[in-house]
């Protein structure tokens, strides 16, 4: 029974977070910002205000596929946010510019996260092979190795939290200071950013829970040997 509750939690927590961000984005993507600026214009204005003239702003396909690419120094905005004039679009654009500002300032958590990308990618893709073999074949050494690799992926999730929260904080500060939003739009913008942040919190929580569960399985296995 407890295992079923656990499985339910690790499924429902991310689903709840995704539902919150989609609901907030859908609602406020229909609310035009008082400035009337598109997401692309918002991103460009904040970048220029902070002297980041070398960072480009590009349109990318998909929905909520917005991101900052530190390799090419490019803020990429999904079509709806790139061309749209909504509060949600302004919030997302400002958030991605927040990452560009972090990159320009060599923000420590961002540098740490970037260095963990290969570890996280390898851990996410390879750790479960070792874990499953270790559990079914009752080979504690393989299970432990899988847990170590998985811990790298979990660490990446945890380091992501301050990076994303800081980018959202910068976004709020910047869109207010450059006059993109006014008055009650601050509350609406914060709801979009908070909902997006919840997805990272949910991902980190699920990763930590799964890591703890595997550690308990390993300790139980070694105590029986």
From TrEMBL:
Q: Which GO terms describe its biological process?
A: proteolysis
For this UniProt record, the keywords arranged alphabetically read as follows: Hydrolase, Membrane, Protease, Transmembrane, Transmembrane helix
Membrane-spanning residues where?
Answer: 126-156, 197-218
Q: Pfam families per the record? A: Zn_peptidase_2 (PF04298)
**GO molecular function list:** peptidase activity
**Alphabetized InterPro entries for the sequence:** Zn_peptidase_2
The protein's name in its UniProt record? Zn-dependent protease
Q: What is the lineage of its organism?
A: Bacteria, Bacillati, Bacillota, Bacilli, Bacillales
């Amino acid at each position: 029974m407890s295992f079923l509750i656990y499985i339910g939690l690790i499924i429902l927590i991310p689903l709840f977070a995704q539902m919150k961000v989609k609901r907030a984005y859908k609602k406020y993507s229909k609310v035009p910002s008082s400035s009337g600026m598109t997401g692309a214009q918002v991103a460009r204005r904040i970048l220029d205000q902070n002297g980041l003239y070398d960072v480009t702003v590009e349109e990318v396909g998909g929905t909520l596929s917005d991101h900052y690419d530190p390799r090419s120094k490019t803020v990429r905005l999904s079509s709806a946010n790139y061309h749209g004039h909504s509060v949600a679009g302004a919030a997302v654009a400002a958030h991605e510019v927040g990452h560009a500002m972090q990159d320009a300032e060599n923000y420590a958590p961002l540098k740490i996260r970037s260095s963990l990308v290969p570890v996280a990618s390898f851990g996410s893709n390879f750790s479960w092979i070792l874990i499953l073999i270790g559990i079914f074949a009752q080979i504690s050494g393989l299970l432990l190795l899988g847990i170590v690799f998985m811990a790298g992926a979990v660490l990446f999730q945890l380091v992501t939290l301050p990076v994303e929260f800081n980018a959202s904080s910068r976004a709020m500060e910047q869109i207010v200071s450059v006059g993109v939003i006014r008055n009650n739009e601050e509350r609406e913008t914060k709801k979009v950013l908070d909902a997006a942040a919840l997805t990272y919190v949910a991902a980190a929580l699920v990763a930590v829970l799964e890591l703890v569960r595997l550690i308990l399985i390993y300790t139980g296995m070694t105590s029986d040997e």
